[in-house]
Here is the input.
Amino acid sequence: MARSPASGADPLRVRFGDFELDEANARLLQGGKPLTLAPTPFNLLCALARRPGSLLTKDALLDAVWGHQFVSESVLKTAISDLRTVLSDDPRAPRVIETVPRRGYRFIAPTAATALQAAVVPEPFTPTQRPAAPSFVGRAEALGRLDRAWAAAAAGKRSLVWVAGEPGIGKTTLVDRFVSGIAGAACARGHCVEHYGTGEPYLPVLEALADLSRNDPQLPALLRMVAPTWLLQLPWLSPPEERDALRRELSGVGPERMLREMGELLDRYAQDRPLLLVTEDLHWSDRSTLQLIDYLARRRNRARLLWVATFRLAEVVASNHPVNALRHELRVHRLCEEVVLDPFSEREVADYVAQASGALAGDEAFVHGLHERTDGVPLFVAALLGDVLARGEEVGPAAPHEQLEGVGVPENLAAIIDQYLARLDKDDRDLLAAAAVCGMEFQAEAVAEMTGRELASAAERCERLARAQFWLTRSTTDVSAERPYAFRHALFRQVLYERTAPAVRVQLHARAGAVLETQRAAGHAVAAAELAMHFERGREPVTALRYYAQAAEASLQLLSPGECLALVDRALPLLESMRAGDERNGLAITLWTLRGLASVHVHGFGSDAKKAYQRAYALLGEAPDHRLRGLLLDGLGFVLGQRAEYDEALALAERAAALWSLTEDPVLLLTACYVQGDVHMLKGRPRIARQWIERALPALAAADAKADAGFGAQPQVMLLGLLALQCFHLGLTRQAHAHIQDARARAQQLSSPAALVLAIWMEAMLEIRLGRHERVAALAQEMAQLSEEAAFTQARNPVEWYRGWAQARQGQAREGFARIRAAYEANTALGMLSGGSEILGYAAEALLLAGDCAGAGEQLAQALAIVEARGERVYLPQLCLLQAAIARQRGDAAASEEAVYRALAEAREQQAPWHELLALLALCEHHAAAGERQELATLLAQLPEAADTPQARKARALLAAA
Here is the structure.
């Protein structure tokens, strides 16, 4: 916190270079814009600038800035380094601060006095007069920075402020004080919670939304309109039928959808009045919440939003918590401000004491001793002062410093709590120990059952401890009867937990798990991750595994695959403690299946996802009726297909078909048919692919109710799209377009953006085969908008290669090639290798249009290598025609003719009349043999559905001219 200017000195106001330093208002500006600078470096800059050109020794600076606190010289060096970073001052060629080796520092920049403006940003908002608070001392600079951030937010500049400090430093007190002084704002608060596995995704944000919805009945309607994925996580705000519809609509969306929806929600909500979000204890945060903070901080549009987040600085630095990396990253880009709270100085301790006792405040020895014993941590200053005052009433008049002598000198801050623990009777200690095992917040009913007490007795003790306003308080996060009590400070719970004997902790965790399990069965909101943690620490690994599996599955439903991976990785080692048998196999299948699905979202289609699915697949023989077998087989089949491991995919499809014959589960049949159809299509076997797909169509209706268990997108859309492609290759172009339209209609009926993206994806493949670049460009744009709205990340690269293909035919061949190639490489990096030969064919076509025969030949060679290595022949006839075109541009007519004949032979081997039509058309266009023209005429007569295509019209014109 900022200290007062040196005794007798006016607040400093100077200009140096393009910087302006205003000590009275705790501001450093550059070019009129405020810079973010922590309190300690700011005070150090003021001390140096007050004596320009003079050497200030290290001791003098330590005394001026840190006062009576004992700190090492390394702290001074760190503060100097922070200053130089903000001032862009190179220590090897300093312009502002010069180092005098082994002695100190000198301020060398020329200075000039200046009168600064009173405000840097427009402040339509003025903090209201805050009520007097006897426990609030100092923090004026920190409070002022929060007020200025709020003023900026009220004016439309979104702001993020970190409030950092150690346990007991007063972070919550500062935030409470700040909140009490703002008017006309919506305020929502959420807390991160320790001891809950890896943390429920978005826990503090969901808590804040729930808090906001209780005070604003209009919020659910706004959630329904712009943030349905968030509405789905707050089930009490919508009826069951609406939740079912939302689940169908949101099938297949990715985690990015939740980020974008929240950004839009907050922007719209804050249009009517500014919004303050407060998230406490971010050092316990889940990954998803941090990702959301990062996303919102980087949004560029204006918003009347201030997000204040508190965390323990030393804890995030020591543990390398993701918060630490995020704060540094955002500070580099000036997207956040950090308020770091220091302990009280002796002067502030004296001010605090004066509010309770003028006599004690006037005793310098007492104030010094109190500061020394507490290290100036406000929480412990208050605790020891309260104890001294209580002892003074008991022992009568005594000199102030003598009253303090009765309080032991702890070796560390936790020892103070130990002293207070020793004064509790055994029943209170046992109750608080049980409460500490429950967490920061707890129910009287839970600790009663855990300790074997009557509920009335436990509730009376909790109430008495809360009235004493030291150990407990009424919960501020939930006003219901479910969690009415909370520890007054996290350090209290931490010390209580650590002071409980390990064997006793094990018993208490097991009892807590049993109590919460009963409450969950009765319909109470108890997170599965919380139960898993209690049973794991209660040494009941089997029960813990069940709940870890539930928690991991819930994380996927919350679109948080990262949390799912963390939960699964926490659970898998527990399998070793289980006996071999059906239950172990079943849990292993569940965990490995969920890990495979989450890995696809987080890491793509690499070996991690494949190995996870295969671990589950290897156990399926031991549990053939497992409820996730459809999800497992479809997921593994999809991964193998995307990795272009076609033979393994076909083997899996055969097993799915065999299981279907035993169980008649329609989801298994759809999996088998989808994988067979997709692989046979890619291998250039359209008739076989069509047979498999048409075999699945009667099972679609029966599988509709189970679709969510087996497919990421609705199976109807997927199968209809594949059927369209097969029909097209068979020359049934009208049927192909009809199937595509059916797929679109089905996706729209299901209100599934991901399914609609899939239908458009396949329609674009048809239009590329017809050569309609304007239609492909329009489809790519539609696909991009939908995939962005649904956060359907798998579609981003296809959008780019479709755009590139169209761009190449619109006169920008080089630009189109670059776009196609970049999308291909991005897809490959994700492990999505399927269809690579066709995409490289698009790239070769683009370079051919640019007149770059050599470059086109290189792309074509890579495509043909993929055909050879993977047997991916679906696009081979078109690649042969490309080879012919390249040879023709080079003037090699013989090579060109040979390549066209290869395309014709491949088309006939595939029994693909459409490809045969293209090959004959190319042959007749450049080699006018009468027999081949007759073959073309015969084929045209056999393809009435293709009569309206550009290629058929061109063929008829060529035959007429001949």
Q: What stands out?
A: The radius of gyration is 35 Å. The longest helix spans residues 582-603. Confidence is low (pLDDT under 50) at residues 1-8, 115-134, 393-397, 705-713. The CA atoms of residues 657 and 669 lie 6 Å apart.
